[in-house]
Structures are given as C-alpha cells and as structure tokens.
Amino acid sequence: MAVPLKYNWRSLWVRWRSTAATVLSMGLVVGVFVMVLALAHGLTATYLETGDARNLIVFRKGSLAESSSQITLEEVRRTRYLDGIERDAQGEPRASAEMIILITLPRQSGGKAHVQVRGVGPQGLGLRPQMRLTQGRMFRPGMRECVVSENLARRFADCQLEARFRSGKTTWHVVGLFEADQTAYDSEIWVDVDEAREAFNRAFYSSLLVRTTGAVAAEGVVERIEVDPLMRLRAVPEPEYFREQTKTAQPIRVLGLGLAVLMSLGAAFAAMNTLYASVAARAREIGTLRVLGFRPATIYWSFMLESLMVAALGGVVGCLLALPLHGIATGTFNWATFAEVAFEFRITPGLLAGGLGFALLMGAVGGALPARRAARKPLLAALRAE
Amino acid sequence: MTLPGLIVRNALRNRRRVMLTVSSMALSLLLLTLLEVLLKGLTDPEGSVAGAERVAVRHSVSLANMLPAKYQARLERLPGVSRCTKLLWFGGIYQDPKNFFPQFACDADALFEVLTEARIDEAQRRQFLEERTACVAGARTAARFGWRLGERIRLLGAMWPANLELTLRGIYSGTFDDAMLFFHHEYLDEMLGDLGFTGLFWVRADSAARVPELIERIDIEFRNSDAETKTETEQAFALGFVSMLGNLKLLIRSISTVIVFTLVLVTAGTMSMAVRERTREVAILKALGFRTWRVFALILGESVGLALAGGLIGCLGAWGLLRAVDLYRLSGGLFVSFELTPGILAGGLLVAGLLGVGGCLIPAYGACRSGVVAGLTRPD
Fold first, then answer.
1. Which residues in chain B touch residue A68, judged by CB atoms under 8 angstroms apart?
2. Candidate from B64, B243, B331 with C-beta closest to A112
3. Which of A76, A103, A180, B33 could disulfide-link A185, Cβ–Cβ 3.0 to 4.6 Å?
4. Could you give the number of structural domains in chain A?
5. A183 lies in the same domain as A306
6. Which range of residues forms the domain containing residue A210?
7. For strand A145-149 and strand A170-179, is the pairing parallel, antiparallel, or unpaired?
8. pLDDT in tens, A242-292
9. Cβ separation of A267 and B251 shorter than 8 Å?
10. What's the ipTM?
11. What is the CB-side half-sphere exposure of residue A175 using CA atoms within 13 A?
C-alpha cells in the first residue's frame, strides 16, 4: 500500500517556508528556461510562417540571401514569361521584380540598426496574401512614399504614420502601416521598386518573386531556370528560402539550453539540500511509517513524489512568471540578411509542457538521493531519533 | 576555541549540506561570471591604441551601400589624412558556409600602413604586394584552418558573382582578433569587370588628437554628392554592430538578476536549516554568556564563508573554462574576445559575499532574538 499523498502534502505545509523557497527558486529557473526558448521559438516561427508554397524566389546562384543577390533586367525579362507562371486577368504574369536595400535607422530606444527596405513591383502585394494595411494607404510610385510594418513603426524613430525619415539624399514619407501575420515581412519597409532603384542608384534588381500555377508547374520553372546557360539564377520555393533563415535562432537556443542546464543543476542541488533536511527532521515519522508496515520501496516513492510535487509547483510558478512575456515584441540581428528582424516572444502549450517537464526532471534529480536515504534509514535508529 | 574556529567547525558538521550549498553557489557564480564575460565581450569591443587614429568611412545610407572608388583620391588629399585603403567585404564561402571569417578586398600597398598594429614579416609583406592573387591572413584564422604559407585558398562568392583563387603569402598578428583575410582589391575588380566602387575606406589620421576634426572634414567633403558618407572612429563603428544585435544587454541582465535572486533564496534556505538545527546550541551559548553579537557573528561568518567558497570555486571554474574552451572557434569566429577581467572576478566575489550576508539576515535575527529558556526547552 502506498503512503497517502496527503501525508506529503501536509509535510510540505508544515515546512512552508523552505517549501516556498524551493518552489520559488525552481520557478525562477523554469521561468528563464521558458523565456529564452520563447524568444528562440518566436524568431523561428517568424520565418517558418513566411511564404506561400506556390511562390518561387529567384535569385543569383551562390547568394545566401536576397539582400546579397543581383539579377539583371534581362534576366527578369527572360524569367517572367516562363510557362507555369500564373497570369492575371489582363494576361500579365504574376511576378514581382524586387530590390532589397539595407538602410540605417535610429531606434527609438537609442542606437541604430539596419532595416530592410523592399522595393516591390505592382504585383508584389497580391503575391503576399498575409500582408494587410492597417492604417493609412498604400504608397504611390514616384512620390517618395513608403509603407512601414507596425513592428518597425513601434521600434524605430520617424517611422510612424505621416512621419518622414531621411536616408541618403532622399526623404521618405510614411503613408501607411501594415501587418503581415508575424512573418519576416513584418520587419520591412516597402517602397516602389523602380523608385528605389533610382533613389539608391542601383542598376540591378535583387530578386524576382513569381507565383506558379501549381506544384508541378513550380518544378518545371525551377528546372528551366536552373539549366538556362544565359542566366546564373536559382529558384527556391518561398517557404524553403525562409526556412533557411531559422538558423538565426540557433545561438539563442544554444544559449537558452546551456543556461537552463547550469541553472537547473544549481537549483537541483538546493532542492536536494531542502529534502535532505526534511528527511533528517522526519526521522521518527519515517520510523513510525515503517513500524506501521510501509515497505522501504513505498517510502522511497513517497519521498520522491514529494519532491516531484514541489517541482511541479515550481514548474507552474515558472510558467506563470514567463507567461506575461507572450506577445512582447523585440528584435535582433539576422546574420543572413544583415538586417534587424522584429519578432515576438511566443509561448506555446508545447513550450509550457517542456518547462513543466524540465521542472519535474529537476525534482527527480533533487529527490532521488534524499528519498533513498529515507528508505534506507535503519528502523530502530529512526525511532530513537530525537 | 576562537570564534573563527567555531565557525569552521559549525560549517563542517553537516558535510553533505556544505557540499550541496557550495556546489549550488559555485554553479550559479560560474554562470553569472560567464554571462558577464559574454556581455562585456559583446558590448565593449576593445579599442586598441593603434585603432584610435583610424576612422572608417562608409555610405551614409548603410554599410551595405557602396562608395565610389574615386573618393580615395579626394580622401588622400584632405589635410590630416596620413594613409587610406579601400575595404570591401567579400563574404565568401571557404569550403563550407559554417567556416565564417571576415574577408576583405583592400589596397595591398596601404594596408599595413593603416593597420599599424599588425606585425608581419617584411619579406612576406613584399611577396603579398607583388602577386595579384596573393592574400594575407590573421594568425588565428590561419591556425584555425591549418594554413601554411603558399596555401591555396578558394573562396566562393556568396555576395559577389566571383570565385577567388588566392595564395596565402603572409600571416600577420598583433591586431585585436587576427582573424581577417585581406586580398588585392584589383583582383576582385578584374573578376567583376572593374567595379568602380568599394565598401568603405579605412583612413589613418596624422594623430589621434586630430581625429574629431578629420571626421567632420571628411563628411563635409562628400556632402551633397551622390554618395554621402558617414565617418566614425573604429570603436563607434564596432559599437554600431553591437547596437544591431538588439537588446541583448537587457536579456542577459535580467537573467543575471534572476540567478542572483534564486541564490538569495538558496542561501537563506540553507542558513535557516542550519540555524534551526542548532536552536538549543544557540541557547546554550547564550546561557554560557555569549553576547548576542557573537551569536550573530557566528552565523554571519558561516554564511559568508560558504558563499565565498562557492563564489571562489565558481569564478575559478569560469576562468578555467574560458581558458580551456576556444570560444572563438566554437562560435565559428563570431565571438572574438572573451576575457575574464579582474573587475568581473571581483564583482563575482562581491556578489557572493553579499549573498552570504543577505541570506543569513533573517535566520540570524531569529537566533539572536530567541530566548534562552525557550531554546533550551524546545523539544526538537
């Protein structure tokens, strides 16, 4: 027969101060664990959710990102009319030749960062259904107008609606704000592509986004671009292109796991300490349990469960501590594009379960030795303990 | 028995507890120290003495915008400029994208007059000058890939449509990271069909004192041109990169705060356990005539001693770890300098000491206040 759980629960209450200290210290460790992983998760999700499987990004072979690619006007012309690319009602191919420029803008909180400006063609908006204007209107070509993502507007100076910012010799007027469903586009400023080429003095485009009519057609287009000897281009499905960039989150993940392991070892030692003390203080109780007929194995599991109970409480506290972070926007530097990427902390049920599991692991590590000690206590000595 | 002797005896009576407390403290202090080193390495790039008279001239829009190569002649004519080289970030791939290290096209003849702190064998430097496809690499990068002089280095152009076939002719050292590879700008120009532009200019001023006015003079010189410039000291330039990393400082600081707070809980927990065990002893000490402050000192000494022991082990651990592990190589050349400065070490020990004090206050207060009779008659 198992020792009633009530016994453990009450024991925890009797020593509520040390229980609270253990719960809180485990909770803090779990909180940090969840926080850092939520950061990495938010960053990864930003890229994973960007892109439509029917879209292909065409850029120069050898480039790792759009921002370092150059394609010529001629290459754009040759690619646009390939078979398998969807046409709109007017018979125009649904393709947008685009240009990426990095500009330096001051942050609202001080300091400066690179921001990605995307010059888009007339079809660019239609190819990205996740993109939605929330305030103001779309830019008009030729008027030095731009639209800015809400994320950037919040983080950078002079990027709010109706504000003007200067870059090089041009002053841009923010006429609209947009949102793009937490995708990579949420870290961009959009302008007209040909206006951007003129303002930033570029002869080339960076990339071409095309909408194919289906998966089979997409393969055909990829193949044809690949083998064309006149062009040194590569076409990649849009989701795949952005999946590559999830690597940006890797250092954060490594940092988070490293931190978590070290911190949790420290916390497990502390928990072990508390439980040892509690086993020592309850020597006579343990002896009594044995006399009543509880077997050592039962006592072992009873103490183990007690440790797990504390850990579970700590895990819940940690998750609750981290939860308010959900949705908080932040930003970091993407090494692939060399620009700021804005994203949100994302706490998912899976992440919370991970935090809880992590806490239980700490509880198991911290509880195993003291529980063994409790189980192996010699009966007579235990009863005679003061 | 002296007071310190009593403290030591007391601390060691429950060896397991001492060990657990000290290990927990040591691990946390190790982490705290590492975080501090990381923070310092990222936010406080080292400005070398030679770097103080060097400025970087880039396009005012951003680093990714190119400057006309012809600016060089105008820069060299400006008073206060001693020497100047073009620099273009090549960003090529050596064997595998993971093998990241900085690669620059430069003016071979001016390079070592601008990068004055770099030491290179004169014969090697001359060989580098004579050969168009030659390159020089920092000692650290050369060691990382096991390069010898004469090594063939093939860089695939990820940013530029050109693949370079370079020959290593020199290895320099003495710069802050010794990681960069330099090759002839002319070679890249030839591969790309005469670019006519470059990424940035590295300018060495006559003297460090004249740098502020030189910065102004350069930016004025190119104002209202097609490509306006932004000139910064090397340190400001490096800090610009740090600022792009985002609010790392806040993240690391908040994690550190959480660790410290957790530690307060751990120390307080341990000390109250230790004190609770000894309620009767404390009462006996008081009955023997020990003053309250002595009882207090007893507990304080034990707590601070344990915390400092843990702190010392943690800091030494961090020091050993940083020496044993090549963070530079581990991070693929991203993190350059990580140094455990005496300041960080002292800070860690100070935190440990304060934790010892903070953790014992409540239990010690309780022990000091408890009455002799109550303590002696307590059943447990």
1. 91, 158-159
2. B243
3. A180
4. 2
5. no
6. 62-231
7. parallel
8. 888 887 777 777 877 888 888 888 888 888 888 888 888 888 888 888 888
9. no
10. 0.76
11. 15
At CB < 8 A and 24+ separation, what contacts does B218-221 make? B218/B55, B218/B57, B218/B75, B218/B78, B221/B74, B221/B75, B221/B78
- The answer to whether the CB atoms of B270 and A262 lie below 8 A apart is no
Joined together, the tokens standing for residue A142 give: 């030729």
Task: Compute CA distances A74 → A96, A203, A231, B41, whole Å.
Answer: 14, 11, 9, 47
Put simply, whether A39 touches B (Cβ < 8 Å) is: yes
Which of B228, B246, B270 is the closest to A273 by Cβ?
B270
What does pTM read for this prediction?
A: 0.79
Q: Is A340 on the interface with B (CB under 8 A)?
A: yes
CA A83 from centroid of its chain's CA atoms: 37
Token representation of residue B89: 């970030």
pLDDT per residue over A122-138, tens digit each? Answer: 898 889 988 899 999 99
From the number of C-beta atoms within 10 Å of its C-beta (0-12, 13-18, 19+), residue A83 rates as: exposed
A112 and A195 in a single domain? The answer is yes
* CB pairs < 8 Å spanning A and B: 151
Q: CA nearest A19 in B: which residue? A: B269
A211 and A356, same domain (yes or no)? no
Same domain, A43 and A82: no
Q: Are residues A211 and A79 in the same domain?
A: yes
Same domain for A291 and A209? no
**Rounded Cα gap, residues B69 and A178, in angstroms:** 38
pLDDT at B330: 62
